[in-house]
Design goal:
The complex is a heterodimer of chains A (365) and B (432). Chain A has two domains: 277 residues, no CATH class; 58 residues. Helices cover 66% and strands 2% of the residues of chain A. Chain A contains eleven helices and two strands. Chain A is globular. Chain B has 432 residues and is of the alpha+beta class. Among the domains of chain B are: 136 residues, Ferric Hydroxamate Uptake Protein, Chain A, domain 1, CATH 2.170.130; 98 residues, Immunoglobulin-like. Chain B is extended, with a radius of gyration of 27 Å. Classes of the chains: A mainly alpha (365), B alpha+beta (432). The interface between A and B is large, with 65 and 63 residues.
Chain lengths: 365, 432
Amino acid sequence: MNADFHPYAWTLWLAAGMTAVLVTRNPLYLIILLLAAGFLYAVLLRRAGQSADAAHSQPLAWRVIVRLAFFLWGFAILFNALTVHVGQHILFSFPAAWPIIGGPITLEAILYGFVTGLNFVSLILLFAIYNSVLGPHTILRMIPGFAYQTGVAISIAISFVPQTVIAWSEIREAQRLRGHKVKGLRDTWPLFVSLLGYGLDRAIQLAESMDARGFGGRILPASPRQTWLIRLGTIAGLLLLLAGLIVKSYYRSLPWAGLGLLAGGALLMGLSLWRGGRRVQRTRYRRWLWRPRDTVLALGSALLLVAALLLSWLFPQALFYYPYPPYDILPAFHPLLGLLFILPLLPAFLLPPPTSENLPLIPGN
Amino acid sequence: MGRLTKDDLPMRPKIMLLLAFLLLALGWQSSRAQEINRAGLVVRFGDGSVVTACVQFTAESVSGADIIRFSGMDVIVDPSSGFGEAVCKISAGINSDGCDYPLDDCFCQCQGVDCVYWAYYHLKDNAWEYSGRGASNYQVRNGDVEGWAWGPGSLNGGSSDAEPPVIPFDQICVADTPTPTITPTSSPTDTPTPGTPTATSTSTPSPTITPTPTVSPTATPSPTPTDTPTVTSTPTWTPTLPPNVTPTATSTPRPPIAIDFLLSPSEIAPGACAQLQWTIRNADTAFLDDGGGEENVPLASEREVCPVSDATYTLRAYRPDAQQSETRTLRLILPQPSVTATPTPRPAPVATPAPDATATIGPTNTPAPPESAAAPATFEPSGPTFQPVQRLTPAPEPGENASGKLLTFGGFALILALILIAGGGALLRQSR
């Protein structure tokens, strides 16, 4: 049983959405993508509201972060408008003697801040959807064997904020039932103490449960020669990557030398990591299902991913927008490209409507 | 989460009021002075060609970025760093150097061993000094000269090869106001250079304005160093305007503008080329219009032209108190034998009135630059005008503009409607 889609299909969906956001500066496409992601998030929220399951309350927990992102969006607009005094469409002016904010306040600066904010709000929303759908345990399971330590750290880091948010609301509710009222800063003290205790409890619980499942315990022994080979390979690969980066950025006349070094380094790193990862053996109890709707989602996501990469490589102007002169303040728009950015909404259609039998009985891993 | 209670509120307006007063007091200081200040600008492009401009502003000081932006040249800046603006590209007429930010990196040619970028200088004591600050963080005052050079800047080990040429302020900003000159008796043998009024040529001052400003106590001599060989040794004092003298007051101590404009041959076969040659005396700047817009050209130069149809070349010589233009027509002899080419009469020089609209950068920079680059020169009446530079996103034709916008916004509205319907449908489906 998995969270309505195969985790790899979700991962491809996230990769496509993030790539599309990162290569696009044009606000019209980004608005379409943000709306698509927003509707998908609303669908997930509605499903979460219908099931009393703990695993499905994740979208609710991520709501705080999404709200924070929208708040930061306003801040980005304000900051850019006040500090950048470039542009031809002047709305009003502060006296030039005012430090930093003095000067004309232009429409261009506001638009630039708007687009910047749009970029990171879209990124955060996509990330929130991905994490609330899969949950930290699924993500941990997808991380390859050699990186199991990093994987644990990442999954704890990712799940920290939503878990804290859930804990906070639970503690608040409990205290409210006891008649506790928050009037000043001093009254929040009991809340913080409980929150801290809850967090420690959770950490210990996680450690114990991982230990009980034998996490990181059964690593196959390796001969000293093998260990040295793996270490040497990793170090050499890292050095090659570094050299490749230096050559690529510093000697622009030799682009292929840098790329070659980078590829060699990546290959060496990959080989030694793969060799090291083979020592970690895993067994799986529940299998993830790949259903027809996963194929559809994967194909749609792959279409968006490939299109975004090709566009940014071949026609960088297509997704480009820069409000300051001498460029046009109005963004360009092509309906076909706009249709492409609806694709992140795809999971909302593929998800089956809730009936009594497909409400998950077991938490979604 | 400390929620603000009602007791906290009365404190806020007080602080706000205090802040507002503080800011107002700060702002008041600057809005007093309203005299016209000027600053010179020297831009050296990668091929060595130099463009100068004189920029007027009424604020006490404006930033170096404003100077280059309102000089009429096309500038691409990168303001996104948050620490000020980086100049990525400067274009003036046919001259253009730099990087098309943000499609390219702002310092696209400064990534590695060979580094060229728009280096920024200030003229201090008749020598260029590499700016330690960015253009938007440096305040330019009256009489300053700013330099930009497409080159290695500070990275070339202190050599002055890449610096802009040293041009003092009073050669860039030739006074558009009565400029009485005083020639000291110590240099009677100095030959007057063209463009620099000397005492011998000030024989006909207009009677309304007497050259008394030289003894005006407010006159601050703009120092013209006398020890460098590049500068004429005739010390000229340019007194600043007394506040009651308007810049429209004219006295013409300089001899009239003289234009020598040659076109040879005046008839060519299709595909052939002709030679334009010109020498202009007693003017500050020259502009050549080949039918596609004016561009700033040197005062004496030549150029090969190879038009594909009949072309008219207008050379306009300009100085603040006068301008004059001459036109030459180049005819193409068509292959039809019946058409006989008639020699075109040489048109008389047409004197057009000097532009009197002089917009200036106010203390708050309120006058926005014109929407199109039609008349950027209004910002600096004594500076050059520039041909509008080709845009990266070409401005659509008026006819296709409307349909293009319709496609843009109609398409966007359509897709918005689609996503609203689709998303709403998906939501409804889940609530069943």
